[in-house]
Amino acid sequence: xxxxxxxxxxxxxxxxxxxxxxxxxxxRVCGRVIDVMYLVxxxxxxxxxxxIALSTEDxxxxxxxxxxxxxxxxxxxxxVVIEESEVETKKQKEVxxxxxxxxxxxxxxxxxxxxxxxxxxxx
Length: 123
What we know:
Largest sheet: none
Strand content: under 5%
Number of strands: 0
Helix content: over 70%
């Protein structure tokens, strides 16, 4: 497990370094701005940016793409994370619905607004 985390960190660090260099070069060559953090975490976006970089026919970008391509294949698959986050989001919504009461009295509304009426409270 620890070895897996270390290799993932190294892949992300190397991909981040390459992506920042691509960011600068793409901005200079074609005025395109990319999201470096999203490129490092999303395989589909990284492939899309690789296609854009190759379409510029810039020599430096082609070098960066050849460095980045092997790392893209090492990106973790996001499918499991998405399923877990959806389940977690549903649970959080259920908890929020249970904790918040829909019955708010006029007195509670008044008490919440009273301090706004008195300007001296700010002094």
